TrEMBL record:
Record-given protein name: SnoaL-like domain-containing protein
SnoaL-like domain span: 30-124
Gene3D superfamilies xref list: 3.10.450.50
InterPro entries linked: Fungal_Meroterpenoid_Isomerase, NTF2-like_dom_sf, SnoaL-like
Length: 177
């Protein structure tokens, strides 16, 4: 049987952090670190208050979430995983947007493997207008205001179906005991 394609092991999918990352890249890297360390506060800190988060494709039926709703979703998701690591394969950056090809590898607390692939389209806040009379000082940090998170829907559906079945089986076992 042929080896399965793994973008993180393919030499043509090599992303390295630039030596002088842009402000948007620094925000994205902070987001990535927060996801890899499962740090709720750090994750939420990179988002603008106007955040709109979409999990796509639309066929998954996921609602559009604002910052508060995404925070609740993320908090609810955290106990599901025993560990997860995100890898970046490619980043395409413009002054106010970024497209990222990524993958994740992890498992649920019940041992269900979770290995997904993503395309993230991120929109960032614009820098403030600085005038001689403004009191803007220090370095400005952009926030993420829009996330379009395309997931491998087959992997997502399989994972959550399997994990929920394991939860249901555990509940049945407890009821029998």
């Amino acid at each position: 049987m042929a080896d399965t394609f793994n973008p993180s092991q393919s030499p043509s999918y090599a992303f390295t952090v630039p030596p002088n990352p842009s402000p948007n890249m620094r925000t994205f890297l902070a987001y990535l670190k927060a996801l890899n360390t499962w740090d709720y506060d750090a994750c939420m800190a990179v988002f603008d208050n106007s955040l709109e988060h979409r999990i796509l494709p639309k066929s998954l039926g996921r609602p559009v979430l604002n910052k508060k709703q995404y925070g609740e979703y993320f908090k609810g998701l955290m106990p599901t995983f025993s560990g997860i690591e995100f890898s970046i394969h490619e980043v395409i950056e413009t002054p106010d947007k970024m497209t990222v090809h990524a993958s994740s590898k992890g498992s649920s607390t019940l041992g269900t493997p979770y290995n997904n692939e993503y395309i993230l389209i991120l929109h960032f806040t614009s820098p403030p207008t600085v005038t001689p009379s403004s009191e803007a000082s220090g370095e400005w940090t952009p926030k993420i205001k829009l996330v379009k998170e395309f997931v491998d829907s087959a992997v997502s559906i399989k994972f959550f179906t399997e994990d929920r079945a394991k939860i249901a089986a555990k509940v049945k076992e407890k009821e029998k005991a």
